Amino acid sequence: MHVGRLLSCAVANEVASRQVKDLRRLLSSGSRDKWLQACTAIVDILNTPGSLVRVEFTLLAAALIKCVKVPKDPRQLSLLTALSESMAQRLEEGDSTDVSVLSPKRIGEAMRAIGAAGRSPPTAVARLRDLLRPHLLATIPDMGPLQLRHVAWAINKLSLPWHSEIDMAINTMLDRVGLASVGSDELATFVWAVSRMGGCNGRFASAVAVDWAGRVGRPGVSAEAHALVLSSLGATARNQSEVVRLFDVCSSKLDLDNFKTSELASVLWAFGHVTASTLDPRIWKICTAKFDESTIRQCPLHSIGNAFWAAGSVAQSSKSDSHLPLAFVRHLAELIVSSGFDGFTSGAISSIAWAVGLASDGGPWVERTFRHLLSSDQCPIDGSCLAQDWKPLEIATVLSSLTEAKLLDAFPAFTSTATEVVVDDIGTWRPTAQNILAVSQISNALWSTGQGTMLPIVDWAMANADALTPQSESRILWATARMFESSVLREPPASVVAFVSGLADQYRSRDGHQYQQQDVALLVWALGTLRLSHYELEERCCVLARGMLMDGRIDSRHLAMVLWGLSWTESRAAPSGLAKQT
Prior knowledge:
The protein is mainly alpha-helical. It has helices spanning 2-27, 32-46, 57-67, 76-93, 99-102, 104-116, 123-139, 145-157, 163-177, 184-196, 202-213, 223-236, 241-253, 261-273, 281-290, 301-317, 323-338, 346-359, 364-373, 383-389, 392-404, 412-425, 433-446, 451-463, 470-485, 494-509, 517-530, 535-551, 556-567, 573-581.
C-alpha cells in the first residue's frame, strides 16, 4: 500500500511537471489564443485547492507578460488581476532573502510585465509593483543587462519617480556589467529609457558615446538601435565633447542604407540638437532620396514633424551652408501636400511651419504648404480648438512663420482667430520660458493689429517682469513701438510708459553681458520711435553700446539703430559720448 501511494504520487508529480512544461510551451508560442489558454489554465490552477501543480513565480511573470499583450480580450482584466494577486501574495508570504523567489532575473521579468500593463493598471498590478520596489535596490547590483533593461524600461513606461533605482541601474551597467559586454539592442533601449527619465548624467553619456562610436560600422547593429542612442544622447547630452565626437563619427561613417524613414527622422532630429557637429552632405542626399510618396506613408506623423524641425535647426545653425537642409524642407513639404497627408498634431504643424518659414523663397510651394497645414480638415479654424489643443508657443510659431514668409495677410481666418485667443487667454499664461518666447514671437507677428492686441501683451509683460529676459523685453517693446508708429496715437499709452520704467529697473540689476547687440538696438530704437526719454535707461544703453563697440560685438546696422533712437530723445549728454567714440 505504501509503495502504491509513492507510485501514485510520482505519477501525479510527473503529470504536474508535464502540465507546467505545456503551459510554458503555450506561453512561448506566437499565438495569442494559446497565451490566453495558458493564462486561463494557470488561474484555474491557482483557484483549485490542493492542486499538485506548483505555479512558480517565473511562470506567473511569464503569464503576466503575455496577458497584458491581449488588451482587447474581455477575459484580460480578470486574468491580469488574478495573476498579480498571486504574485503579490508570494512576495508578502516569502522570505525576502529567498533567492529562488526574488532572484534578479525574476524581479526583472516581473517589472517588465508590470510596465507592459501600462500607467492605469488594475489595483492588484499596482499593489504588486509597490511590493516589488523594496527589493529592487537590493537586486539591481546583481542584475544582468537584460534585467537592467527591463527595469529601466518599466520605470520609464510608468513614469515612476524611482530615481534611486535608475541611478543604481546606471552604476551597475557601467561598473559591474561593462558597456562593451552589452548587446546593442539592449544597450540602446536602456539608454533610451534612462534618458527619458532624466538620468543620463555626464559620466553615463560620455561612456555610452565612447562605446557606441566603436559600434558604428560594425555588422549586426540595427538601424533602430543607432536611432535610439543618437536621439537619446542628442536630447540630453548635446554639449558633451564625447557625444559631439560620436556624432562626427556617425556623420561620416554611419551606413544609412537599411534605415527606414522613421529611423532617418530620428537621426536627423538628434543632429538637430547637436548642432556643434557638422552633418555630412551625403546624409541630406540619402534622406531626400529615401523620402518619397510611398515611403513617407510608413513614417509616423510626429516623426515627419521632427524631420522638418531638424532640417530647420541644422540650417539655422549653419547659415553659410544651409542649402541642403532647406532643400530637404521643400522636398518634404511638397511630399506631404502631394500625398494629401493630414492628421498632424499642433506640435507637428508648428514644427513644419517653422521650417517652411525658414526655407521660404517666395515660391508658390510655400503658400501651398501653409494652406494644406491650416486647412479645415487639418486644423479647424476654431477659437476653442486653438485655446484648448494648442500651446501658446505653437500658435506663436505658426504666426511668426507666416510673418517670415510674408503670408500673414493671406490667412486672415487663422490670424484673426489666433489674435482673439491671445487677447482672451494671455492673462492665464504662466511665465515659463516657452510662454515668454511665445509672447515675444506673437508681438513681432501681430503688432500691426493695433493696441487691442499689443496692450494686453504689455500688461502681461509687466505682470511677469521678473521672469522676462533682455531678448523678450526688447522685442515686446520694439513691437509696441511699431504699433505706435503705425497708429494715430499722439503719445504712448500709460501702460507702455510704466513698462519702460520697469525696464530701467531690470537694466540696473543685470550684468551687461546678459545683453546682446540686438537687445540694445531694439530697445533704444523703440524709445526713439515712442518719443520716450528716460535718461537712466538711455545712459545704460550707451554704456553697453560703447562696450560692444570697443569689443567688436556690435555691427554698423545695430549701432545706427542706437544712434537714431537716441537722436529722437530729449537727452543729449548720453549719445554725445557714444557718437564721439563711433
